[in-house]
Specification:
Blueprint (H helix, E strand, L loop, with lengths): L1 H37 L3 H11 L7 H13 L3 H11 L8 H12 L3 H14 L4 H17 L6 E5 L9 E7 L2 E6 L13 E2 L4 E2 L2 E8 L2 E2 L3 E2 L10 E6 L5 E11 L21 E13 L2 E2 L3 E2 L10 E6 L5 E6 L9 E6 L10 E2 L10 E6 L5 E5 L9 E5 L1 E2 L2 E2 L3 E2 L10 E7 L4 E6 L9 E7 L3 E11 L9 E3 L4 E5 L6 E5 L5 E7 L2 E8 L6 E7 L6 E9 L7 E3 L13 H16 L5 E6 L6 H21 L7 E7 L15 H7 L2 E5 L7
Parallel strand pairs: 27-34, 36-37
Antiparallel strand pairs: 1-26, 2-3, 3-6, 4-5, 6-7, 6-8, 9-10, 10-11, 11-12, 11-13, 14-15, 15-16, 16-17, 18-19, 19-20, 20-23, 21-22, 24-25, 25-26, 27-28, 27-31, 29-30, 29-32, 32-33, 35-38, 36-38
């Protein structure tokens, strides 16, 4: 019996000692993983954490680190899986529910993401409003996916690798783009690896397009591509100056500082350091780039600046920064070129563009439309691509570019070609390792109906009674830069229906004998309804008969042209340019509530203001005459001493035009 017990004891001892190396290896891997994580080397940390849990189940702390490391390195599929395990633990921080929802959202699982957002709202009442907003965004994205696609998207396989390739910009007969691909022929020097991603540092490459194919990408010179990250970039209109993003290693004053939400940030050597983004620029000298110079407003001790782009006229430099005073994690800013060639102080582009989230990767097309990426505006998940018109800090409403350009993952780095129907962009939509690829897009022609109504504006009449259908109007529809036209006539009710395509601009011209020819520029957006309505108002050519113009209003006791009045005067200017032989008199009328002399002077100033505005729109001054009528020609009973309503007085405060007698027969 003693022999038997001894053998059992020896066997147990052998098993225990045999498992010791495995436990020691797991502890070593865990220590190394924590060091990597604390140094922002998330790709390396993930591998070590995996080793640490090979021999035993992971603790909550390790699962938390694996989830966070995958999320921070944009590995959303793996992050979703680990957060699903973390939230099962009752001791887990509630913020993990939000992270789990975000990963589900990024992976396109909108119904599941909505459940988690709402659960987070219940657990964290202080953040419930934002959580419910994100839950609503899931419903919106699901509805958007039901829309018919406006573009066809294809991977640009000749430009892409297993690494990240993104943010193309036009250059010569091709593009410059950013990539962390392994540099061919690196020689004996070992290639430096970015611990955050586990891939080489970003560099700028160029490639030329030959027909439908791309040449092998070529690395830009070393005075552009420095040791660490370089890119994305932008060029001026003549391709003589390149502006680009570059990283710089900075020692942190506050060791708890955020590792820079503009991404591409790490501590490559030891804790207490961080990489900040900066903007550099270099000029072309012959066929070579000169040494790069720093942007005046780099301030790496406090914040990052990056992702530069110039406005089409080159007078504004837009960029992204996390500088203090912004609306969110990263905002878009701009500087204005001064007379001496320097740049003004940065100004925030405003809260129409910028949100509490991240706005990044700004770009322009040749028409000045801004394209940028954001995770703060309503979207499909991750960074979505948006467009907006305007400049500086004044912008129109932001428009989501929709699927298939946008996906639930990160979509960014837009290059729009020509008329906006083709181009390139980048996305990590099909990668579990957060590597981006470059994609091409081309517009799918979506049909629409252009419903044209032709009406006669009756001279001497005001309001709805002044309009009646005009039949047999000759209508010519043309696309810009096209020699082909469609010529038809309106029916007896003044209607005609053209078959057109969304995303196109059309020139419409209506003409009929004894009437002024009427032009109209028709812009049918990609998001236009299936039927677009356009009305042409025709004025009969007759002498000394005033025709009232709708919506020409002036502020009290003022004669400056208001924006709403300018819209109507723009239409009249277009009519005059389409009828070059016509001369007109512009008349201004007042109501009777001021003195005769005052009203006479005010009406003369207003008539002259309308003439000056028409001249500014290209109408020759010798074709125009200004005349003020004061209160001398009321269209109703409202004269001095008669009590009238405001609507009746408004009828008398009008702007008219009439064709001058001597040219009526020409």
């Amino acid at each position: 019996m003693k022999y038997t017990y001894t053998n059992v004891f020896i066997l147990l001892l052998v098993v225990a000692l045999g498992s010791l190396p495995a436990r020691l290896q797991a502890q070593s891997a865990l220590r190394k993983a924590d060091q990597y994580f604390n140094s922002y080397k998330y790709a390396l940390a993930i591998e070590e954490y995996k080793k640490a849990i090979e021999s035993k189940p992971p603790t909550l702390a390790v699962m938390q680190r694996l989830a966070d490391a995958n999320r921070l390195s944009n590995r959303s599929v793996a992050a979703e899986s680990w957060y699903a395990e973390v939230v099962k633990n009752p001791e887990a921080d509630p913020i993990n529910i939000m992270y789990y929802a975000q990963m589900l959202h990024t992976n396109g699982k909108y119904d599941e993401a909505k459940v988690q957002y709402l659960q987070y709202a219940e657990k964290q009442p202080a953040e419930a409003a934002q959580a419910r907003k994100l839950a609503d965004a899931c419903d919106t994205a699901a509805q958007w996916l039901k829309r018919s696609p406006l573009f066809e998207v294809k991977a640009a396989t000749e430009l892409n690798t297993l690494y990240s390739d993104f943010s193309p910009i036009p250059y010569k007969n091709g593009i410059i783009f950013t990539s962390d691909r392994s540099v061919a022929g690196a020689g004996k020097t070992k290639e430096k690896i970015f611990g955050w991603t586990g891939r080489p540092y970003l560099k700028l490459y160029s490639s030329e397009k030959n027909g439908l194919t791309w040449s092998k990408p070529t690395l830009l010179t070393s005075n552009i591509n420095a040791t660490y990250h370089n890119g994305p970039a932008a060029l001026d209109s003549v391709k003589s100056t390149i502006y680009f993003t570059r990283t710089n290693l900075v020692k942190l004053k506050n060791t708890k500082a955020n590792p820079d939400p503009t991404s591409w940030v790490e501590n490559p050597f030891a804790s207490g350091f961080i990489n900040r983004l900066e903007i550099y620029f270099a000029e072309k000298q012959g066929e070579k780039w000169a040494d790069a110079k720093p942007f005046a407003y780099n301030k790496i001790e406090e914040y990052s600046v990056g992702h530069p782009v110039l406005s089409p006229d080159g007078n504004l430099l837009y960029f992204v920064s996390d500088m203090p005073g912004g609306f969110g994690l990263t905002d878009i800013y701009y500087c204005e070129r001064m007379g001496n060639g320097s740049w003004s102080k940065p100004v925030n582009a405003g809260n129409t563009i910028n949100t509490s989230g991240r706005e990044m990767f700004p770009a322009f097309d040749q028409n000045g439309t801004l394209y940028f990426s954001s995770d703060g505006h309503a979207g499909f998940g991750g960074l979505d691509l948006f467009s907006a018109k305007g400049e500086r800090s004044t912008w129109s409403a932001v428009t989501n570019l929709m699927a298939p350009i946008n996906s639930s993952r990160n979509d960014y780095g837009m290059l729009v070609e020509g008329a906006g129907q083709t181009g390139l962009f980048s996305s990590d939509r099909f990668s579990e390792e957060a590597t981006a690829d470059i994609y091409s897009f081309s517009m799918i022609q979506q049909p629409a109906v252009l419903a044209v109504t032709t009406l006669e504006r009756l001279a001497g009449q005001i309001g709805k009674k002044s309009l009646m259908p005009l039949s047999n109007v000759r209508l010519r529809l043309t696309q810009p830069n096209s020699r082909d036209s469609i010529i038809v006539t309106s029916d007896k009710k003044g209607h005609y229906y053209f078959n057109v395509f969304k995303g196109n601009n059309y020139a419409l011209l209506g003409s009929k004998a004894n009437f002024l020819t009427q032009p109209a520029d028709v812009q049918i957006s990609l998001n236009a309804p299936d039927t677009v309505n356009v009305t042409l108002l025709f004025d009969r050519i007759q002498t000394n008969t005033p025709i009232s113009l709708a919506n020409i209003y002036f502020d009290l006791n003022k004669w400056e042209i208001r924006p709403d009045a300018a819209l109507e005067l723009d239409k009249l200017a277009a009519t005059l340019l389409a009828n070059p032989k016509v001369k007109i008199e512009m008349g201004s009328h007042c109501d009777s509530r001021e003195g005769d002399n005052y009203n006479q002077l005010l009406s003369e100033l207003r008539a002259e203001a309308t003439v000056n505005y028409l001249v500014s729109q290209g109408v020759a001054r010798e074709r125009l005459t200004a005349r003020g009528y004061g209160e001398s020609q009321p269209v109703n009973r409202c004269v001095d001493g008669v009590s009238c309503s405001e609507e009746e007085h408004q009828q008398n405060r009008r702007t008219t035009f009439k064709i001058q007698k001597e040219l009526a027969s020409k």
